[in-house]
């Protein structure tokens, strides 16, 4: 490798503002880089204008606070003075927290995959001063490795191309942007155009295709690295609830995956909560970061498995225990403020633990036989080491192995584990702990609201419902900015991120509006409090006003001129699920539910238009269409609309619980307030929000029985059967209606 080229004398001092500008940023990820010698700038017009003034490329580095390899590249390259000097001299360096700016992350991830054939974080992208990508990769090491150049070599090659072949660089960048624009147009959804309903046979075909990629021995799909397939699990569980020739296959696939993950190192056997993914196919070596969005989705999946009332592969009691521990972990570890009444839930825990100033991946979670014996004594220590697959050679590092049985425990083994677990938890809590990223992301908290609310009912833990209401009140109070002086529906704005109780930054993306609306509708179904229904209605109106332009749906609008340029100056829509459902798929589900509550044919038609994306995706790649498939399954089931009349009391609570514990796909439940037993608190809504509780059309004319007792009306398309007054009749009728959807 040639000797490093010295920095141009004086270059980094002649330009005003040439210093690291991340120190005042609220993002934990950006602050992690505030002491780098690299002159980082946050993403924005100022940084790109600075690059244009200097006539140099932008080096865009994208990551997130919990990312292990982001920490590695930071230590190897961004903390190195010589590398920083070269970068400062010839580039404008920009740092992006992908969790705060998913719009930036999404388009440049697509560019990175197109250029390099790979994607991941840290993402390293080189841009023209108007935001067009022309070279990209992910992690670059400090010295060359087989098949991967060093970061310094990349910087030198990019600088040489910029100086010597500028026309070709800019032409290629424009061509890439045009190609991405064509891809956006190919997946465009027009909500004002009629669309046929999804052929129900497509759902069974998707199950068959998923079976081909399933790992029947270890659960999940595909090989290593293996990620929790949360959206696909929701589809499989819904499909299993409706008798068909593929419902048993769907049930068994979901059960095998849920069981394998629950008993693996992916699931924290001491504290609850799931890691981001496993680097091995058998889930035995996790990548240790714990994300809110993963755990919210998986909590709901295990709760819905319990609701399916099946002991296939994974007993309902074991699933309920896993779900309960995940809920506790979410509130205890991610709850901002009092875990019982949190001011939102934080984003993540780091993959690394800093021990004596050094980052060690998963250090808090690793054990050796000697460490177990030190806590439990020789007898129990050796027994637990055998039980939890802790051998003399660490599977992750010299620090040891994560605890995991990898199979169902026997009765005696369960008794041993339950006896020693408190001592091991206490010992582990005394170790250095991973850092927490405290930012509150609106959409991910919406996912958590739905999961906690439903878990509270199914697990009979009303304190979880109360926590969901606290998070919901925080989002209304802090993240929602109502339009002053406007009564137009949807005129308010949802802010994506808050720090320390203050929302700032970009407005929410389609996924934020959709996830939050989903959470508030689920919370209304559980509590009967119309304030939650009303806020969901505002969010849906806001999403329609904001993300539907000339009938076309997009993921974001107007947040960045550079992103718009990189997309070929076309609004983008990504229909594919990633770690969380796509914004389009989540919005389709919300529109379908809202149409069931409101009787709106317009919103039902909009949901159908989004579902028109499904046929080509489902027959090619059902693993990235899980939430679209789940929504289509709900649409095929109706979904059933359940209206529960007055008066409140024990019988109404029993009928309500029977509805909420039904596995009927996508069923909506409208109920008079007061059945959930939670306290009626000030919702903390900001000034200018709706002050009167809205009517729920599904409840109109749903009266009590002649003797004054409550009744349930089961409907489809607002057309209802005769009302039912007993739990037994209700359960039987729900089963008949669900079976008829097959």
Q: What do you see in this structure?
A:
With 742 residues, this protein is α+β, with helices and mostly antiparallel strands. Helices cover 47% and strands 11% of the residues. It contains 27 helices and 24 strands. It has a five-stranded mixed β-sheet with strand order 1-3-2-4-5, with helices on both faces. A hairpin with a 2-residue loop joins strand 23 and strand 24. It is globular and about 85 Å long. The termini are far apart. Residues 1-14 and 674-684 have low confidence and may be disordered.
**Which structural class do the helices and strands define?**
alpha+beta
Number of strands: 24
Strand order of the largest sheet: 1-3-2-4-5
Mean pLDDT: 91
Q: Extract low-pLDDT stretches.
A: 1-14, 674-684
Main attributes?
742 residues, alpha+beta, 5-stranded mixed beta sheet, 4-stranded antiparallel beta sheet, 24 strands
Blueprint of the fold:
Elements: H1 11-14, H2 28-32, E1 41-42, H3 45-54, E2 58-63, H4 68-78, H5 81-90, E3 92-97, H6 102-116, E4 123-127, E5 133-137, H7 151-164, H8 166-186, H9 201-213, H10 230-240, H11 247-262, E6 277-278, E7 286-287, E8 290-291, H12 292-307, H13 316-334, E9 348-349, E10 352-355, E11 358-361, E12 366-367, H14 369-376, H15 378-387, E13 401-402, H16 411-429, E14 436-437, E15 440-441, H17 442-458, H18 462-479, E16 480-481, E17 493-499, E18 502-507, H19 510-527, H20 530-547, E19 548-549, E20 552-553, H21 561-566, H22 583-598, H23 601-611, H24 614-618, H25 626-637, E21 641-644, H26 650-660, E22 668-671, E23 712-716, E24 719-720, H27 727-739
Parallel strand pairs: 1-3, 2-3, 21-22
Antiparallel strand pairs: 2-4, 4-5, 6-7, 8-9, 9-14, 10-11, 12-13, 15-17, 16-17, 17-18, 19-20, 21-23, 23-24
């Amino acid at each position: 490798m040639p000797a490093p080229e010295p920095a141009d004398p004086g270059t980094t001092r002649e330009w005003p503002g040439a210093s690291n500008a991340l120190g005042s940023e609220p993002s934990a990820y950006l602050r992690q880089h505030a002491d780098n010698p690299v002159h980082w700038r946050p993403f924005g017009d100022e940084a790109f204008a600075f690059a244009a003034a200097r006539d140099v490329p932008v080096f865009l580095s994208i990551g997130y606070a919990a990312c292990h390899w982001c920490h590695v590249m930071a230590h190897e390259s961004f903390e190195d003075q010589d590398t920083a000097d070269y970068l400062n001299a010839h580039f404008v360096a920009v740092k992006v927290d992908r969790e705060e700016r998913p719009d930036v992350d999404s388009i440049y991830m697509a560019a990175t995959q197109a250029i390099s054939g790979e994607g991941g974080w840290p993402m390293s992208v080189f841009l023209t001063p108007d935001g067009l990508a022309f070279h990209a990769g992910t992690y670059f090491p400090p010295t060359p490795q087989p098949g991967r150049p060093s970061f310094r070599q990349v910087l030198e090659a990019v600088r040489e191309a910029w100086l010597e072949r500028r026309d070709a660089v800019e032409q290629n960048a424009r061509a890439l942007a045009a190609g991405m624009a064509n891809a956006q147009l190919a997946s465009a959804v027009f909500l004002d155009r009629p669309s046929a309903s999804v052929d129900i046979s497509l759902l069974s075909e998707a199950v068959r295709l998923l079976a081909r990629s399933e790992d029947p021995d270890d659960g999940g799909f595909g090989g290593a690295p293996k990620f929790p397939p949360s959206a696909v699990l929701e589809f499989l569980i819904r499909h299993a609830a409706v008798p068909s020739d593929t419902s048993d296959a769907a049930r068994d696939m979901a059960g095998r995956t849920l069981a394998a993950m629950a008993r693996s190192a992916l699931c924290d056997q001491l504290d609850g909560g799931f890691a981001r993914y496993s680097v091995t196919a058998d889930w035995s070596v996790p990548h240790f970061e714990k994300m809110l969005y993963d755990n919210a989705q998986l909590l709901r999946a295990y709760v819905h498995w319990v609701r399916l009332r099946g002991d296939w592969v994974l007993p309902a009691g074991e699933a309920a225990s896993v779900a309960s521990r995940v809920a506790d972990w979410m509130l205890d570890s991610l709850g901002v403020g009092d875990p019982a009444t949190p001011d939102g839930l934080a984003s993540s825990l780091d993959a690394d633990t800093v021990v004596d100033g050094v980052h060690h991946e998963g250090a808090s979670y690793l054990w050796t036989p000697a460490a177990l014996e030190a806590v439990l004594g020789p007898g129990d220590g050796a027994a637990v080491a055998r039980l939890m697959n802790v051998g003399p050679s660490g599977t992750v590092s010299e620090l040891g192995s994560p605890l995991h049985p990898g199979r169902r425990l026997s009765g005696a083994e369960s008794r041993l584990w339950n006896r020693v677990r408190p001592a091991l938890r206490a010992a582990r809590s005394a170790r250095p702990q991973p850092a927490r990223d405290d930012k509150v992301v609106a959409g991910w908290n919406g996912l958590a609201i739905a999961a906690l609310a439903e878990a509270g009912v199914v697990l009979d833990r009303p304190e979880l419902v109360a926590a969901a209401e606290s998070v919901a009140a925080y989002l209304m109070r802090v993240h929602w900015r109502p339009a002053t002086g406007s009564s137009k529906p949807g005129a308010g704005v949802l802010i994506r991120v808050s720090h320390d109780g203050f929302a700032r930054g970009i407005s929410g993306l389609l996924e934020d509006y959709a996830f939050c609306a989903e959470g508030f509708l689920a919370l209304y179904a559980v509590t009967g409090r119309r304030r939650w229904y009303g806020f969901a209605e505002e969010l849906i109106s806001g999403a329609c006003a904001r993300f539907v332009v000339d009938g076309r749906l997009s993921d974001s609008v107007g947040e960045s001129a550079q992103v718009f340029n990189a997309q070929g100056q076309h609004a983008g829509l990504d229909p594919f699920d990633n770690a969380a459902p796509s914004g389009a798929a989540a919005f389709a589900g919300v529109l379908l539910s809202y149409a069931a509550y409101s009787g709106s044919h317009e919103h039902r038609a909009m949901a159908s238009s989004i579902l028109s994306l499904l046929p080509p995706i489902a027959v090619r790649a059902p693993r990235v269409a899980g939430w679209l498939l789940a929504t289509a399954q709900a649409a095929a089931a109706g979904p059933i609309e359940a209206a529960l009349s007055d008066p409140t009391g024990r019988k109404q609570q029993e009928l309500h619980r029977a509805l909420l514990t039904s596995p009927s796909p996508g069923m909506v439940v409208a109920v008079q307030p007061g059945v959930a037993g939670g306290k009626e608190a000030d919702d903390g809504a900001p000034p200018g929000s709706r002050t009167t509780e809205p009517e729920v059309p599904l409840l109109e004319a749903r009266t009590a029985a002649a003797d004054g007792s409550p009744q349930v009306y089961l409907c489809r398309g607002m057309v209802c059967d005769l009302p039912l007054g007993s739990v037994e009749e209700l359960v039987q009728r729900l089963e008949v209606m669900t079976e008829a959807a097959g």
